[in-house]
Amino acid sequence: MIAPAPAGFMDTPLAALAWTGIHMTPWKLIGLIGALMFGGRWLVQFIASRRHGKPVIPRLFWYMSILGSVMTLSYFIFGKNDAVGILQNLFPTFTACYSLYLDIRHRGWHRDRNPH
């Protein structure tokens, strides 16, 4: 039997949350923030679409997609070592990067008032 690797700082429970009984490590915190960022992008898209009265994907949507994907991907690679989570977050990272590239190429680097 192989002994588990010793826990490093990123795998040590955060003392600030010990009183809650929640086991929260820095890696888990990164994963949760990433999941909130990735899910929150839909709120940004919803608000932009309501404001314009038509479906709109603002550039912030792609930034949040990339950041959320990278954070959750990091959690699944380094924190949990879970192949399902890695595969689930790998594809959105690349597609969001490519979509941001296309958005910048299409609308330019500056931020337009009109998202289309």
Q: Quick one: biggest sheet? A: none
Detail the poorly predicted runs: none
Strand content: under 5%
Q: Helical content, roughly?
A: 55-70%
Q: Quick one: overall form?
A: elongated
Rg, alpha carbons: 18 Å
Please write the string of helix (H) and strand (E) elements: HHH
The number of helical segments is: 3
Structural class: mainly alpha
Number of DSSP strands? Answer: 0
Q: What is the average per-residue confidence, as pLDDT, rounded to a whole number? A: 83
> How many domain modules?
1
| N/C terminus separation | 58 Å
Blueprint of the fold:
Layout: H1 26-52, H2 59-80, H3 83-107
Helix pairs in contact: 1-2, 2-3
Tag the structure with descriptive keywords.
116 residues; 64% helix; mainly alpha
Describe this structure in words.
With 116 residues, the chain is an all-alpha fold. Helix content is 64%, strand content 0%. It is built from three helices and no strands. The longest helix is centred in the middle third of the chain and has 27 residues, at 26-52. The protein is elongated. The model has no long low-confidence stretch (mean pLDDT 83).
Summarize the entry for a quick read.
64% of the residues lie in helices and 0% in strands. It is mainly α.
